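Tutorial, part two.
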Amino acid sequence: MDIDKLLKSQPFEKGVTISGGISFGKAYILFKNDQIKYAKKISYEEIEGEIGRFYKALENAKKRVKEMKKNLNARVSLEILTIFDAQYAILSDPLFIGEIVDNIKAKNVNAEYSTKTVANNWKIKLQKLNDPYFKERTNDINELAIILIEELSLLGMKKLCLLEPAIIVAEFITLSELVSLEKDKILGFVTSHGGYTSHLAIVARALNIPALSMINNIHNDISHGDDIIIDGLRNILIVKPKKEVKEFYIKEKHNHEEKRMALNEYNKLPPVSNDGVSINFEANLEIIEELPLVEKYNASGIGLFRTEFLIDYTSNLPGEKKQTEYYSQILNYNKELPVTMRTFDIGGDKMIQQMEFYKEENPFLGWRAIRFQMDNINLLKTQLRAFFISNSSGNLKILFPMISQMNEIKRLKETINEVKQELENEGVKINAYKIGIMVEIPSAAIISDLFAKEVDFISIGTNDLTQYTLAVDRGNEKVQGLFNSMAPSVLRLIKIVNDNANMANIPVAVCGEMSGKPLEFIALLIVGIRQFSLVPWKIPIMKKIISTLNIKEIGKYWNEVKFLESHEEVREFLIEKFQDTFKLVKSFTDNYIL
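Running the prediction step on this input gives:
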C-alpha cells in the first residue's frame, strides 16, 4: 500500500518531529487560561496590598516549580531537571521581580497585568540578543508568567485528568502541564510552538513519547476527541484518518517495531564486513543515564561523552568534588572499555553565567570551548583534576574541542603537566591516559599532520567541520539547504585528516552525525575512516550495512569521488554504486537517510 496515494485524499498537516515514532489515538485539546482577566486599574491606596498579593503568588510559584522538579525527578535525567533550576533562578531574579513591582507602582495596575507586560518585554529583549541560549529562556519566561498569573488569579492549575490514553494537542505545553500528566496515558504531543531544543522536546525524548511541533492552526483543524495519527517518520499529523489510512498505520507501526526488533540480532555480532574487515563502533553519550546503552548495543567503548550534562547554565561550573563523583561513575561503569571525555564545550549556543556579560555578534566564531577554557585556566584545571582523580582504571581519553592552532595544544599539554604535578604532590596516582583533539575547524584539518605529532588520537567532528567549511550556520533555516556533509570540500578535508593520522600511526574517528547516516557513512568508508562514534541505537544499523560491503575494495572509489563537483553528484554516485545496499537498508529500517 502506497501512503503517498492514500494521503492525496486524506487531510494532514506538515510539521517537525521533535520526538520520533508513530502514534495514533484520540486528541485531548489543552486550552490556555481563557478565564484569566489581565487589565485592571487600581487606586493608590491599593498598591501596597497588590504588591503583597504578588509576593504571595511568587512564593507559591516557587513552591510549584520545586514540586514539579520533585515529581519528575525519578523519571528523567539530571540534565533535564536543570530546566527547573533555570526557572527557579528567574523567579528569584531581583531585576525581573523588581520590574513587575515597579510597574505596579508606576502604572497603578494589577499584578496580573504587570506580570504579563513585563514578561512580554523580557521576551522581546531576549529574542533581540540573537543568541540561541537566551532565546530559549523565552520559553521559561512564558511558562513562569502563566504560573504567576494563575496563582494571582486563584486559578492554580489542577492536574489534568485523562480518563483514557490520548494525544495531547496544544499551542504549546509548559513543563508544569507535562509533569501533571500521567505518562501511561500520554500517547503523544502535538503543538504549534517549540522546536527540537524546547523543554517539551527534551522531556518527550527522555520519556520516549512521540511528538510533533510547528503544526499551524492547530485548534482550528482538530477537535477534542478526533482520531489523529503522529507520523514521526514523515513529519506529518493525520487528522480524522480514513479507514484505509488507519489500517496502513497499524501495520506501519507493527512493521516499524518488528524491524527494530530484528536489528537486535546485530547487537552481539562483531562489526565485520563481508570481506572480513573489522570496523570499530563506539557510542556518543549525553548523560549518565545512557551508560547501559553501551552494553545494550555492544559498543567497543565511549567515543564521545559530552561533559556539558553537568552544567547548570544558571550558575557557575560544577566544582571538583561534583565532577569527580560523576566522572568516576562513567569511567568505572566498564573498566575494560576506553572512555573519551570531552572537556566542557561551552559558548556558542551553550552559555553559562560567567559568559552572560559578554555578548558576541557571532558566538560560534567567538569565545567558546577551548578558547574560553584557556582564558579561565582554573576552571579547566578543575576539570582535568577531576578526570585524573576519577581515572582509577587507566581507561581515560581526554578530548579537547575547537582546536584551531598548534600553540593551543602545546599550552594544554603544559597545563596537563602542571595538574599532574599538583596531584602527585598530593599523593594522587596518575594512571594511564591519552589526549586527543577534535578536528572541527578547517585550519586544524589542514595542519593535522602537525597535530598528529602532538596527540594520541584525533576525533573529527563533522557537524562543525561542515558548518565552518561551508560557512553555513546549521541552525539557520534560511541556509539549511546549503548544509551538507558530503560536499566535496568537506570530504577532502576528512581525507586529509585521515591520511595524516594514518601516517603518524594514531587512531582517527568520526564522531559527528555522518557516522549514523547510511549514505554519509559509506562516503566516510571510501575516504578511509574505519572508526566511528555515534548514537548507540544506530550501531546495529551500521553493522548491517557493513556486513554487505567489501571494505578492501571500497577505497578505490575515492579516485572517482574526489573529482565530483557537488554533494548532489556524490549522492547520486553512491546510490548508483551501492544500490543493493540501500535497498537492503530500506528493508530493515524506516530511519534511513539518503
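Confidence is low (pLDDT under 50) at residues 32-37, 155-159, 349-358. In part three we will examine how such features are distributed along the chain.
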